[in-house]
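the two lines:
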Amino acid sequence: MSEAAKAVIDATPQAVAPKEPVRRREIHWQDRAFRRIVLGVAGLVVALLVALVLNLIFLSQPALEQFGFGFFTDTDWNPVKEKFGALSFIFGTLVSSLVALCISVPVSVGSALFLSELAPRKLAGLFGFLIEMLAAIPSVVYGLWGVFVLTPWLRESVQPRLKFIFGDFLLFEGPPYGIGMMAAGIILAIMVTPTITAVSREVFRSISRNQREAALALGATRWEMLRISVLSPSRSGILGAVILGLGRALGETMAVTMVIGNRPQISASLLAPAQTMASVIANEYAEASQDLHLSALAAVGLALFLVSFVIQVIARLLIRPVKRGQT
Amino acid sequence: MQTNLVRCINFVIFALISPLAEVPLAGEIIHGAGATFPYPLYSKWFSEYRKLDPETEINYQSIGSGGGIRQLIDQTVDFGASDAPMKDEQLKKAARTIYHFPMVLGAVAITYHLREAGEPLKLTPDVLAGIFLGQIKKWDDSRIGAINRGVKLPKDLDILVIYRSDGSGTTAVFSDYLSKVSPIWLQQVGSGTALKWPTGLGAKGNEGVTGVVKRMVGAISYVELGFALSQKLPVALLENSEKEFVPPLLQNVTATARALMNKMPDDFRTSLTNAPGHKSYPITGMTHLLMPEVLPLEKGRKLKAFLQWALTSGQAYAEGLHYAPLPPELANRVQRQISRLQLKAGGRQ
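prediction for all of em together
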């Protein structure tokens, strides 16, 4: 957590980061050796990434050759008839992650504000520790909790009421199974909350005391002070925190597959079952024996990688202007 | 060209990592991989057999039938294991002759969740297919009622189909059966380890499916019989090809294989579903060990001895773990097949 947090803090204007790595002439052989070792290790990581992507492209080639771009725009996934289209999985991954963010961002940023600005020190320490504990719970445990506690509760108490209040159409159409997109979104929201909270809290903490005092000295109320001198300069940091959380939500497999209903379909309803890219790979890989099926699963993996990559790029583009505006 | 580049990069990475990899211990460990369904029995067999012959160490990885077949084709394991027999094109790809040895029998049970049903539910092939196709939607449908006079069927309760979301041999046997009894199923869905389901929700594994069924009134699903027995799940009686309603019991599963003995091909690659015979349970399957015809000398000798043991004394462990043992006449035939395995010095180690 702290590593990721630091990376985001470094991106925020307040952090005092070294401008350039210190370069001195390396007279001692130990320095040179060390530099080479570290370079080698870093190079290995990059090579792994490249190999992974090339492998995915290579493995998914038969499927992509057969279905072309249609693989990403077709919803039909039928291993028996060997027709493969990944759109419903892409939809499931994106929407479940979006639902998760809609729930967890306000909660996470709110609790981060409380922990860094308002809570007494002892309480903040305890709360912070407990929230970070959420990140240590294995995802299969979240999945079990989802099956045994969350989905029955959604089915019996929450979803019938939502249907009653909002009507039986669009977002709340169809029978309330409990299992479905809503359950997946809530589980994911809980799973990404510790990430977003911890990183946002570190971002808030890195803002110097002077800024807060300046705002108060100008007659700002506590809320105005938080808004002007804490929240506003942290925008890019919070965005970074959200992207880190999103990364976890996109790739989460076990907990999601246990509560989402595993039905490849595109439905506007939050109550309907769906299926994600990560979970179809985990579900079908072990028993897939036809080459085309395996290749199609690899292509889904490639699609998941591309989606994550595109989101990272968008995030970079979003973070940059905010940063410039501040400096 | 791309392939070469990928291989090249992989090679560099493996070259860097391989010194860290596990070095095999002295002695010849026999490696196998495949089906998860028989894994509890196999691991029992391996540990019991090792008490008899401490020299034979077998390392079995239950990675799934598909994975087992792939590894056997790639020659990274000494033997594979699969619930469904290998297909012709897979055998062609293997580049060596592969033998199938049935080891033990299993079946698929239909489980459901109805409050105060009274008697166990009875299902005919038509009704079962109708439910899983989404054509029969309510529990008080007259087609269910007609064959279940003694069962209290709830009024206006939706039938919720739960299926296995993970690829599985259980799904393969179940869909193989439905394809045999329902032309509509055959045409619309077909059979395989993973399907495009006409209706319902998917849950992962026998445990996942059971977890959902137990929590949803009106749910129906299929699970591996051993799991249903050990969890004491309510199971439906199925009408077999002789129009008799048969409960999924281990002795009926063994009886199914016995009824098919005359039709069993020499390579044992056959489906046991919808078998003839009064006692036959219609959704039955068997799990196989897969081995190349020619085995390296030392490992081959050990494997042959182990297989002989598993098909005789070993069968006694089956029922305790909720597997149906092979009928003795089938076990005899498999043993004759085992004697055809050839040993060759200096073969692949």
